[in-house]
Amino acid sequence: FCQSLLHTVFPPELRFASLKFFNRLFNYFSSYCYYDITEIDGVNTNELYNAVQLYLSSSASISGNRLSLSRGLNSSSITFGLSNNDRLIDSYKNVTVEWEHIVTQRQSQTFSWRPLPEEKRGFTLRVRKKNKHLVLNSYLDFVMDRANEIRRINQDRLLYTNSRGGSLDSRGHPWESVPFKHPSTFDTLAMDPSKKTEIMADLLDFANGESFYQKTGRAWKRGYLLYGPPGTGKSSMIAAMANYLGYDIYDLELTEVNTNSELRKLLMKTSSKSIIVIEDIDCSINLTNRNNNGGKKNSYDVVPGGNNNEDSANTITLSGLLNFTDGLWSCCGSERIFVFTTNHIDKLDPALLRSGRMDMHIHMSYCSFPSLKILLKNYLGFEESDLETAVMAEFEAVMEAAEMTPADVSEVLIKNRRDKKRAILELLDALKMRAEKNKLKSIEKIENVIEDEEQEKRALDIPKESSDEKQKEEEKDDEKIQ
Ligand SMILES: Nc1ncnc2c1ncn2[C@@H]1O[C@H](COP(=O)(O)OP(=O)(O)OP(=O)(O)O)[C@@H](O)[C@H]1O
Ligand SMILES: [Mg+2]
After folding, report:
1. Angle at the Cα of 182 from the Cα atoms of 411 and 278, rounded to 5 degrees
2. How far is the CA of 178 from the centre of ligand 2 (A)?
3. What CA–CA distance (Å, rounded) separates 64 from 89?
4. Under a CB-based contact definition with an 8 Å cutoff, are residues 430 and 412 in contact?
5. Interface TM-score (ipTM) > 0.85
6. pLDDT tens profile 252-303
7. Distances in Å between the alpha carbon of 270 and those of 46, 252, 263, 300?
8. Which positions ≥6 away from 322 have C-beta within 8 Å?
């Protein structure tokens, strides 16, 4: 209306100036202010535009009638966004804001170093003037954070390894990455349900604990030590943790690291929201063979792979490693989880087990009865009620004594997964056989112990007798002399 009025009333020279004037007048009296976030900012892609698009994709379901759907490469979910020239209301801390997605055709292809898209896209954010500070100070940061979160959740996890030794790739990174698609989750993990929920709660507390760690002055990190016999699900647990929190995994191969400084570089190149894993820590550094060369070196000095070569400068030390889990370096980069696994907790250096180093020690044990129920459900689709109580009771009676790992149990179940009845029978047989074997073994052990004890006794008795005899003979000799 203003424009047609201007056309009729003013000569062309005056039109532009008066349009500007009306605009200013309108802005002055309007209680709103507007922010344009364009897709391309000069020649660079505007990060904020992508972030807003992602952010709106999470809240768009609430009020939009017309949404555009998209699915990214390697992504497992569909995201939706605002269609062209549509609006959406969002609220943040009780303040209402309005987003509009504006798409216009680019007038003419202006010169640029890279081809620009034909359409000019942008978001316009409308807020009340009184809320301007809130939007500029925290709402846009909130949008950025949420967008990063969504991106992380939608993206595939990555699994990093340092298997190339100390060499760097073309971009100067010491880590190599592959998409991480391990299907293990806490649902599929067979372990005591109460222990499982405890671990899950602990992980969630950690992931949501930024302010707690800040408040208490602690570095935002947590350490878990998983220990137990092979095949009890230590690696599966790590995968479940990563899938649960949506973290990437850094699988640190200590035998490929030569020096402490190399270790430091590797750890500095890890990103936050990640799990740093050292598997079989008792094997990767030989903690029992310490260098005790007159205090020249730290007493924790160890050589990768257990080749304890005193002259070698290529040593990583346990203290160097602990510096990262515990010391000053541990806070470079936040939100990290360290997971160490071992089959022999008794072989570990007490320094590693000291409280505060590894926050939680998790014992992955042989398949228990509750774990078995999870496996039966996962592999055969059996609920507890699907099986006869007598069979369940038989399982329960034999489970502990059998000492069978979840890996062994699942192998029997996989082998017979087409014939569920047979799977149950075969598993029960296998368990009983193991239990019997273990019983025999323990009897044998007890017998051996008794035999050993008796032998020891005899060994102690013999010198006593002989010394008694000697004494008697000496006494006799003495009498003779007298
Ligand atoms: N607790 C469990 N729940 C479900 N599956 C399990 C469990 N433990 C083992 N398995 C199965 O057995 C296989 C081997 O387990 P996993 O590699 O996690 O054992 P591990 O404890 O890491 O053994 P190792 O000490 O040899 O590294 C897995 O592929 C998984 O399918
Ligand atoms: Mg493992």
Report:
1. 95
2. 18
3. 9
4. yes
5. yes
6. 988 888 888 888 888 888 888 899 999 998 876 654 334 433 333 343 444 4
7. 26, 11, 11, 25
8. 351, 352, 357
CA 370/CA 368 separation, integer angstroms: 6
Please state the domain extents for the chain. 31-155, 159-363, 367-482
Ligand 1 centroid from CA 231, angstroms: 4
The ligand that comes nearest to the alpha carbon of residue 232 is 1
CB-defined site of ligand 1, < 6 Å: 188-191, 230-236, 343, 364, 406-407, 410
CA dihedral 50, 54, 57, 60 (to 10 degrees): -70
Kindly report the backbone phi and psi dihedral angles of residue 96, in degrees, each rounded to the nearest multiple of 5, phi listed first.
-95, 135
352: closest CA among 315, 322, 328? 322
- Ordered DSSP codes for 159-172: EEE-TTTT---TTS
pLDDT in tens, 119-164: 778 889 999 988 888 888 889 989 988 888 877 777 777 899 987 7
Please tell me the pTM assigned to this model. 0.67
Q: Which atom of ligand 1 is nearest to the CA of 229?
A: 25
CA pair distance 366, 386, nearest whole angstrom: 24
Instruction: Tell me the backbone φ, ψ of residue 294, rounded to 5 degrees.
Output: 60, 30
Whose C-alpha lies nearest to ligand 1, atom 26?
Answer: 230
Asked whether 344 and 375 are in contact (CB, 8 A), the reply is no
How far apart are alpha carbons 120 and 115 in whole angstroms?
A: 12
115 Cα to the center of ligand 2, angstroms? 50
Q: Give the closest residue (by CA) to ligand 1 atom 17.
A: 235
CATH topology of domain 159-363: Rossmann fold (3.40.50)
- 3-class secondary-structure state, position 245: helix
Confirm if 220 and 335 have CB atoms less than 8 A apart: yes
Which two structure tokens, joined as six digits, stand for 196? 């499982």
* β pairing state of 360-363 and 221-227: parallel
Ramachandran region of residue 146, left (φ > 0), alpha (ψ -120 to 50) or beta?
A: alpha
Query: Around 303, how many Cα atoms within 13 Å sit in the side-chain half-sphere?
Result: 13
Residue 323, CA atoms < 13 Å, CB-side half-sphere: 16
Pair of tokens at residue 283? 């094997």
Distance of CA 64 to the CA centre of its chain: 35
The whole-angstrom separation of Cα 88 and Cα 126 is: 10
Distance 412 CA to ligand 1 centre (A): 14
CB-count exposure of residue 461 (10 Å: 0-12, 13-18, 19+)? exposed
Closest-CA residue to 221 (of 326, 352, 148, 363):
326
